[in-house]
Amino acid sequence: MAREKNLPFETTLLVRDCCLCLHMQRAARNLARIFDEVLRPLDLTNGQFSLLMSLNRPEPPTMKDVASLLAMDRTTLTAALKPLERRDLVVIEPDPEDKRSRLLSLTPAGHRLLAQAFPLWQQTHEAIEKPFAPGEVDTLRAQLRALS
């Protein structure tokens, strides 16, 4: 049987230096750690903050709409909602117009926690953006939206 040839190490270096997915994952993990640390005193993760913020709407969204916004499948969203529901931050109710669908809304406690968390998010976001030249962060956001 012929021995398979291994990829050369130079290929590993090429992927390390060029892979958009790798660089996005690293940046996302770093940003997640920063925001997790800032939100920890409120017993929130960055993902929970994003989820709560996605529910801050005039009308309760459906699970489908929130899952789409957060690029999650509904099973993952359901799992993410459970601890927030246990903390009385979120309510999940049947949609009166479609009993198969669920509507998500913040409770008064969820609104209060989100109001506490937002200034922390805002200050941290400003600090992260500060080293960038004017317009660079807006360009980055546009490029990330194009990839998502």
Automatic annotation (TrEMBL):
Chain ranges passing through the membrane? none
PROSITE patterns, per the entry = HTH_MARR_2
* GO-annotated biological processes: response to stress
**Gene Ontology MF annotations:** DNA-binding transcription factor activity
Where is the HTH marR-type domain positioned along the sequence?
17-148
Could you name the domain of life of the organism this protein comes from? Bacteria
Please name the Pfam families in this protein's record: MarR
What InterPro entries does this protein's entry cite? HTH_MarR-typ, MarR/SlyA-like, WH-like_DNA-bd_sf, WH_DNA-bd_sf
Q: Which SUPFAM superfamilies does the protein's record reference? A: Winged helix' DNA-binding domain
What's the name of the protein? MarR family transcriptional regulator
| Organism of derivation | Paraburkholderia acidisoli
